[in-house]
Here is the input.
Amino acid sequence: MDYTLLSSPLQGFTDFRFRNAQNKIFGGIDTFYSPYIRLNGKLVIKPSYERDLLPENNLGLEVIPQIITNDANEFLFVAKYVQELGYKELNWNLGCPYPMVTKCGMGSGLISNPERIYAILNKVHSESDIIVSMKMRLGYDTTEEILDVLPILDTYPIKNIAIHARIGKQLYKGGVHLDAFQQCIDNTRHKLYYNGDIKSVEKFQEMQQRFPMIDHWMIGRGLISDPFLPTMIRSNSAEYPENRMEMFSKFHDTLYEIYSESLSGSTHILLKMYHLWEYFSTTFSNPHKVLKQIKKAQSIRNYEAAVAAIFKNEK
Here is the structure.
């Protein structure tokens, strides 16, 4: 069965710099979703959002912009903006689990409010020709919340619904709810994408067998931890290339260089790289030791020395 691999948007990680580096060095992703645009009541696009979506910063990539909002006017404003950049689709985030978002009634915190979802979709589809797709969780408190929303979505020409098979309260803890995801398949006419815990070739194959009707698979944290994963899935092999560390080192150096140019001050650079290493470290033979080495590096010089030692010791 043919399938499509998608990069799930992760705020603070999968910006255009990451997308370009991953695509150039590893490849394997068909479509990248950009981290969400959040307006906070002001109809102004921040420069960081603009840079992330500029066509010249995403050459050769298929990118779908994303918005997080509970306001139809914000949705329409962003829809017009991305259309001016040449995008035809806008993905609506009803999946973010973090309290700073959900307590404002956005992300997965909006799933329990079907009336608000209906009102927003109604206005957007009445006043814009933007193609709307969804990124959701199963709910915030329970996996049943989404079942009250799916009938509403079925009344609109939603392109697809990507579902992360957890509830918001879980954040990224605990297991995915596969039976609840199957319930979604059984209760919507829309095309569903699967998202959640695809971190290995074996797990991907397991999910394929469980849901043979799904042909779009979204990889989130697994892509940051292991940028080899998409091409390994495509080759149907869990074997890494012989020059694995050489490629990973090139990927790291590319990101390190572009973030060093775009971020001001060593503190910001080191913090950015530390957050990346929280994921990178998991693919090394001793993740705890690797992350400890990175965390101990309190200067650029020490960081570069630590990284060099990590890659040398892993060979």
About this structure: The radius of gyration is 20 Å. The chain has a mean pLDDT of 97. Residues 244-262 form the longest helix (19 residues). The chain has 14 helices and nine strands.
